[in-house]
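Protein in question passed on here:
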Amino acid sequence: MPYKVNTPVEGPKGVIDDEQLKRMMAATRPSFLERNRYRLVTLVLIAINVLVYALEVVLSGLNVNVSTRVLVDMGAMYAPLVQSPLDLYRFVTPMFLHMDLMHLGFNMVALYSVGEVLERVLGRGNFLLLYFVSGITGNAVSYAADVVLGGGPTVSAGASTSVFGLFVAVALLGLLHKGNRSFFAQYSKGMLGVIAVNVAYTLLVPNISVSGHLGGALGGLIAMFMIPAKNLRVPTPVRVAVAVLWVAALVWLLASQGVLGG
C-alpha cells in the first residue's frame, strides 16, 4: 500500500529532552582509560612526578621553590654522596624530583606531548625502559662531569634527563621503525626543531645541567638500539651488544671511583 504524505503517523512523536540527550552522549563517550589507552604509562609517570613535587613543597615549608637541602635529602644527584652501592638510587630518584613549579610543568608538558606516540609504537614496557635508561644515563653523565671531568659537585634533578631521551627516541623513529617510515620521518623532522630549541635552552639558561640533558639524549639513543621493541629494525645481536656495553660503561664509571668497592 503506497504511503501518502498527508497520512498522519499513528502514535505520539518521540521528543528527546536535554537529560535524555546527555545520557545518550555519555553512553557513547569513551571512558578515560579508553581515551588514554596509549598514554597510561605516561600518565602514571606524570602523576608520580606531581605527587613527589607536592611532597617536596611540603618539606620546603609550602614553598614552591624547593630548597636544595630537600632535594639532596630526597635523592637528587650530588656526586660527593655517591660513595657505595647503597647510594646508587641517586642515579634513579633525580628523574622524579624538580626544583620549582616551572621546572615541573615544562618537563610534564614535554613528557605528555611525546608519550602517546612512543607508548603506541614501542609498547608500555619498552617505553618505561626507554624512560629509565635515558634518565639513568643522564644522571651518570652528570655524575661523571662532576667527578671525572672535574666540573665540581653540583646538585641536579629533574625528569629532563628522561625527556631529552624521549625526544631523541621520537626523532629516530623515522630511521628505525619497520613500517610507516615516511610518516615517522616527517614526524621526526618536527622533533628535530624541538630538540634544537631545548638544547639552546639548556646552553643559554643558567643553573641548567648541560651534562644531564645531553646525557639523557645519549641515553635515548642507546635505549633505541637496546629495547626489544618489535616495531624497530634493530637486530637482536645489536641489542644485546649495546645493552652489555651500556652496563659495562656504568660499572666502569662506578668502579673507577671506588663506589662498587665501598
Remarks:
- Residues 124-147 form the longest helix (24 residues).
- Residues 36-256 form a domain with the Rhomboid-like fold fold (CATH 1.20.1540.10).
- The radius of gyration is 24 Å.
